[in-house]
Amino acid sequence: METNKKIAIIIDGAALMQKAAENIAAVIEACPGYSAAVIQAQGFSGTELLPAHAVFLGCEEPKPSSFASIETFLGHINLAGRPCGIFSSGAKGLEYLSALVRDSEIAADRPFQVENGAIDREKLKNWVQDILQKG
């Protein structure tokens, strides 16, 4: 019997991050045995992340106010070895997310940058699949 691996995609709510999250979720849902949930950071609860096999975090700008509870949560929990993908539309957002996950020891792989507001679907698909394979 194949188990369903739950993937959490947590975003800041910016339109571009919502679009990226929907594309990530579509790639995940196309992989047998996986399901994805897009979660707005504003309503984040640790109970949504704990059962997740992997997590994707995305924000448009560094340190969005909606990520306050995520910052607290990740600063107090060890998620060593759990696959993680971070994505943003800019280098500063990616730097912020890289620093955010460091204390939790989550296995953040190479980040994905949404360039010029566009999403290269083939690159995104390869990135997502690579992260899922690490878990």
Would you list the SSEs in sequence order as H and E?
EHEHEHEHEEH
> Count the helices. How many?
5
What is the percent of helical residues? Answer: 25-40%
Largest sheet: 6 strands, parallel
Low-confidence stretches: none
How much of the residues is beta strand, in percent?
15-25%
Gyration radius from CA atoms, angstroms: 13 Å
Structural class, from secondary structure content?
alpha/beta
| Nearest-integer average pLDDT | 91
Number of strands: 6
Task: Give the CA-CA distance, first to last residue.
Answer: 18 Å
Structural shape:
globular
Structural overview:
There is one protein chain. By secondary structure, the chain is an alpha/beta fold. The protein has helices at residues 15-29, 46-49, 68-74, 91-102, 121-133, and strands at 5-11, 34-40, 54-58, 83-88, 107-108, 112-113. Strands 1, 2, 3, 4, 5 and 6 form a 6-stranded parallel beta sheet that branches. α1 (15-29) packs across α5 (121-133). The longest helix has 15 residues, at 15-29.
Keywords, separated by commas or semicolons:
135 residues; 5 helices; 21% strand; globular
Topology:
Layout: E1 5-11, H1 15-29, E2 34-40, H2 46-49, E3 54-58, H3 68-74, E4 83-88, H4 91-102, E5 107-108, E6 112-113, H5 121-133
Parallel strand pairs: 1-2, 1-3, 3-4, 4-5, 4-6
In short:
By secondary structure, the protein is of the alpha/beta class. The protein contains five helices and six strands; from the N terminus they run βαβαβαβαββα.
